[in-house]
Structures are given as structure tokens and as C-alpha cells.
Amino acid sequence: MRLDPAAPVVGVPACVKQIDGMPFHSVGEKYISGVLNGAEALPMLLPALGSAYDLAALFARLDGLLFTGSLSNVAAHHYDGPEDRPESPQDPQRDETTLPMIRAALAAGLPILCICRGLQELNVALGGTLHQQLHRLPGKLDHRSPQNVPYDAKYAPRHAVTLDPAGAFARILGTSEIQVNSLHWQGIDRLAPDLVAEGHAPDGVIEAVRVANARGFALGVQWHPEYRVTENPVSMAIFRAFGAACRAHAAERLQQPVRAAE
After folding, report:
1. How many helices (H) and strands (E) does the chain have?
2. Which 8-state DSSP code applies to residue 239?
3. What does the alpha-carbon distance between residue 119 and residue 31 come to, in Å, rounded to a whole number?
4. Following DSSP, what letter does each residue of 215-230 receive, concatenated?
5. Is 100 exposed, middle or buried (0-12, 13-18, 19+ CB in 10 A)?
6. pLDDT in tens, the chain (262 residues)
7. Are 12 and 27 in contact (CB under 8 A)?
8. Active site residue 15
9. Is 77 annotated as catalytic?
10. Are 240 and 173 a contacting pair, CB within 8 Å?
11. Is the distance from CB of 144 to CB of 183 less than 8 angstroms?
12. Measured over all CA atoms, what is the biggest interatomic distance in the chain, rounded to whole angstroms?
């Protein structure tokens, strides 16, 4: 699709991955496509620069933030959790970037959408904790990605999510039950005080949250609505709602007077 020249700008923080022995700051194309084709916004990839960012100056150029999924996990020391398992993939530069960025974005009223790891970051940033291996807990489903299958099979619907019929998700989606994919080891343990759980898997795992009393759009999901976003009405409804919030923010931002250089 061709973007409207006035399209909102959505920041997408990157992961740091080793490729051929060198660090690369990267974002999966499916997230870029979700912003472009679902939210109809311009994705701006943000390197994982941690404290190098002046967040107020950065947010002056953005109309929303998408916090993506990743193979890496939020380091346990950020929520005083048990020591990470030795093979747990880590990304300290992303942690140092996204956790303060989430808190600052909420304070600024910048629209945010948090997906998978992003949902877990949201919970940790606001004072919650995580289960590190859901499949080892009694009574829990195995939420991990299916192995040795094509990508379409990995992202196929795996279980239902029951939504609060009076919540934001039910209002956006027009239903109180949906089918979602599942590709995660970790999940919310103690819900952060400022979060409201709006969706649960059949085993009780929290799958959808909103930030209580947020100044703007602030939702998180444990599944992956970005995958083939245009082919799934539920995914499109989520990204369209996010895009609408970003466009409203852009209209407000562009109406503000530009300060002359001092």
C-alpha cells in the first residue's frame, strides 16, 4: 500500500541479534507489515540505544509505539524473579530501552500496542512478574511454538481467549471470545497494579491487558496479531484501533506550534 503523506509515525524498538558474529539491531518484517498495512502508519525502527535516548525529544516525533515479540526474554532481575534458565535467550540492550520507554510513553499519553514479549515488558515495567516456563506449571497448556512445522502452522489458531464482555477488547472486536495463536514460553504471573486483565486462555493464562486510566490507547496481547495481519479480521480490528489512536495523536501533535530554535 502507499502511505498517506499525513500518516502517523509509529516507533518500533529493535532487538539486538548476533548475525555472523556481529550485533544487528533488527525488527521482524511481520511487525513492520502490521504497522503499515494494519494501522496504516509509517513504521520507524528504533535501535536499542537504552539511556542514549532523550525520550521527550523522541516522542515529539512519534504518534505511537509498537513493542514486538522476540525470541529473547525479559531478564529476571528486572522483576526479582528466579534466576533465568541457562539457555534462556537474553537481550539486555532491548530491556534497557523498552522498559523505561514504556513507562515514559504512558506518562506522555503516547498510544502503545504491546505484543508477546511486549506484553511481558509492559507487565514488568509497571511492577508485575513473569512465569518463565508456563508448560512446567500444573494445569497449564503448552503455549510454546510448535516445532518442525511451516510458519503458517506455527501461527495457526491454537486455543480460545475469553474476553471481558465489558472491556476494551470486546468493544474493539465486537465479541467476547476469539481464537489465537500461541508461541511463548513465558507469561504473566503477578499482574502489575496498573494493568487490567481482559482476556484469558482456557488454563487461566492472561492473554490480553489494558492499562487502567491510561491517557491514550494502551493495550497488550500475548498472541501474535501481526502475522498475516490483513488476512485475520481480529488482527485487523486491533491494528485499526491502534492506527486510529495514532492518527488522533498525530492530528493533535501537528496542531501544536513549532518552537523556534533558541
Report:
1. 7, 13
2. H
3. 14
4. SS-EEEESS-TTTTGG
5. middle
6. 788 888 999 999 999 999 999 999 999 999 999 999 999 999 999 999 999 999 999 999 999 999 999 999 999 999 999 888 888 899 999 999 999 999 999 999 999 999 999 999 999 999 999 999 999 999 999 999 999 999 999 999 999 999 999 999 999 999 999 999 999 999 999 999 999 999 999 999 999 999 999 999 999 999 999 999 999 999 999 999 999 999 999 999 888 654 444 3
7. yes
8. no
9. no
10. no
11. yes
12. 62
**Cell 525470541, residue?**
71
Q: Global pTM?
A: 0.95
The helix/strand/coil state of 195 is strand
CB of 100 within 8 A of CB of 151?
no
Distance from C-alpha of 186 to C-alpha of 165, rounded to nearest angstrom: 26
Rounded CA-CA distance 38/260 in Å is 35
Q: CA 179 to CA 211: how far, in whole Å?
A: 23
Residues present in the chain in total: 262
Number of Cβ atoms within 10 Å of the Cβ of 255? 7
The catalytic residue among 184, 198, 226, 246 is 226
C-alpha cell at 100: 523505561
Cell (9 digits) for 247:
492518527
One-letter amino acid identity for 63? D
> Phi and psi for 120 in degrees, rounded to 5?
-65, -40
224 is catalytic: yes
Angle between helices 92-108 and 117-125 (to 10 degrees): 70
The catalytic position among 15, 114, 116, 246 is 116
> Environment class of residue 240 by beta-carbon count within 10 Å: exposed (0-12), middle (13-18) or buried (19+)?
middle
